[in-house]
Amino acid sequence: MSNPALVQFKGVQKTYDGLSLVVRNLDLDIRRGEFLSLLGPSGSGKTTTLMMLAGFESPTAGEILLDGRPITKTPPHKRNFGMVFQNYALFPHMTVAANVAYPLTVRKVPKADIDKRVARALDMVQLGGKGDRFPSQLSGGQQQRVALARALVFEPQLVLMDEPLGALDKQLREHMQIELKELHRQLGVTFVYVTHDQGEALTMSDRVAVFNDGLIQQIDIVDRLYETPSNRFVAGFVGDST
Ligand code: ADP
């Protein structure tokens, strides 16, 4: 029988200092193909949750399943997820094409195959023909698109993003939000997106998980968060975006 959820968190807890839980008891199903945002104020546990999914942090308790199989102890590079973080820098001494090719180079993919896939990934983010530039010759928005192409180049089933547009100015950020949403629609892969920006989450997502104090307060489609917030925190936090 096929598993309906791509990822499941089951009773996941995390403490860094052994005293306070920053993720308290997380049960979360991530659906195949959805655009899910983890939304909440600073310190609410969103990044920790994403880092546990990526494999850079281990849960203190509980289990994470991918396609029904435990991955809690699988190292990050074996999870094969695409990742884009705000400070996930490009290599300045390498061309755009070499930056995008990097995940394939380290996986020892044949050269001809790499060239084809890099060209396709650059086209996806509208940077076709810019492969021989260096990152410093591109704008901030273009650099972020290169990071996105690098995350997509090995066709991962899951793409993890942590405030990827945080360093961009407002106009460019809004433009990139629309591009990301469109890219998600075209690719049909699963996106998990961390943000503290209500407007951003509500614009792009199929579903939003609202975090506060290490707990998911509500996970729902955007309309329902507005219409039937499950508590005062959700009503206040989501309502703040208007
Ligand atoms: P958010 O992404 O919602 O801002 P985080 O998951 O980054 O929240 O942080 C949740 C809590 O865990 C915060 O109190 C933060 O200070 C703490 N924290 C995050 N990373 C570490 C770490 N590596 N070591 C110790 N404490 C951490």
Biggest sheet descriptor: 6 strands, mixed
Shape: globular
Number of strands: 10
The helix/strand class is alpha/beta
Strand order within the widest beta sheet: 6-7-8-3-9-10
Global Rg: 18 Å
| Relative strand content | 25-35%
- End-to-end separation in angstroms reads 43 Å
Number of helices: 9
Average pLDDT, rounded to a whole number, is 92
Helix proportion of residues, in percent? 25-40%
Ligand roster: adenosine-5'-diphosphate
Low-confidence stretches: none
- Helix-strand string: EEEHEEHEHHHEHEHEEHH
Organism: Sphaerotilus uruguayifluvii
Subunit structure: The complex is composed of two ATP-binding proteins (PotA), two transmembrane proteins (PotB and PotC) and a solute-binding protein (PotD).
Catalytic activity: ATP + H2O + polyamine-[polyamine-binding protein]Side 1 = ADP + phosphate + polyamineSide 2 + [polyamine-binding protein]Side 1
Keywords: ATP-binding, Cell membrane, Membrane, Nucleotide-binding, Translocase, Transport
Any descriptors?
single chain; 242 residues; alpha/beta; 6-stranded mixed sheet; 10 strands; binds adenosine-5'-diphosphate
Describe the structure in your own words:
This is Spermidine/putrescine import ATP-binding protein PotA. It is a single chain. The protein is an alpha/beta fold. The chain contains nine helices and ten strands. Helix 3 (96-106) crosses helix 4.
